[in-house]
Amino acid sequence: MTHRKRSIKSGLPPGSLIHIGEDQNADGCITVIDYAPAEFTEKTFTHVEECFTYRDKASTTWINVDGLHKTEVIGKLGTHFGLHPLIQEDILNTEQRPKTEDYGSYLYIILRMLAYDQKNRGITSKQVSLVLGQGFVISFQEAQDTTWNPVRERIRNNKGLTRKIGADYLAYSLMDAIVDNYFAMMEKLGEYVEDVEDELITAPSEATLKTVRDLKREMITIRKAVWPLRDMVRVLQDTDNPLITPTTKIYLRDIYDHAIQVIDNIESTREIISGMLDVYFSSASNRLNEIVKVLTILSAIFIPLTFIAGVYGMNFDFMPELNQPYGYPIVLVFMAMIAAGLIIYFKHKKWF
Question: Over 60: is that where the pLDDT of 24 sits?
């Protein structure tokens, strides 16, 4: 995971609108979905001022901003909807952990949108900010994403309860889509972990060790993004703010349960990955032991042969079999018999 520099904000007053993160969307995009039980409107705007007319409508409005690098857009939108300067600052600082803050007339929610990058074999983490107000939800994403497409389809086709309940249910639906995506992400990551585990058993290498270390870092990223979610949802369930109705609080329990399940899955995967290091070092130790065993057996076989060759290499006039015509072959056969006997003995002991 890339650590983003925050030094650019040093010395600036609180609430300064400085984007901390990557420019993941060069153009940026503002979409507005306005709906009621019997009507629906969806538009895409280039200028942020075009969506200001939707604030005081009787219908429910969802304003989505993709791309945070244009700080003036965040500033104008925040000023029009009365967002505190510190909220605008948090929206632009994409290193926030999941949290919720109650400002009375609106609720501010931060989540992490996680996805498994199949190509790079890693986890991408993007910040998502939600502002829940009376009759509206404003969402801010670092870049365009498909996670909320099912929510958009339900609104367009008037399926489910989204168009029948207020903005608080819309905020729940967006949060639920993010949390449900965690399960898909963990499934893909789990499959990759199983492949690495098989590789550790069959053919471990230095590259495998690097992969395990990368997985440990990815799990830290996931854990930091998901663990605070449980407490955040609990705060939303216990809030007295009328923006969240008792009906929606019942649905928030489902997100809480899902968060617990994801956390359990994360902890199980972390234990498996931690055990992989032990498996790797055990495999490396076993391979080293096998090599040492083979070298030891070879040394044990050649020690007596070397001794005999050394004895007959001494320059003495009177040595056994020195003047025999078949002395040399006899010694060679005797040495071969010793080597064969040692090999048979080692095999009988199942040393190799």
Answer: no
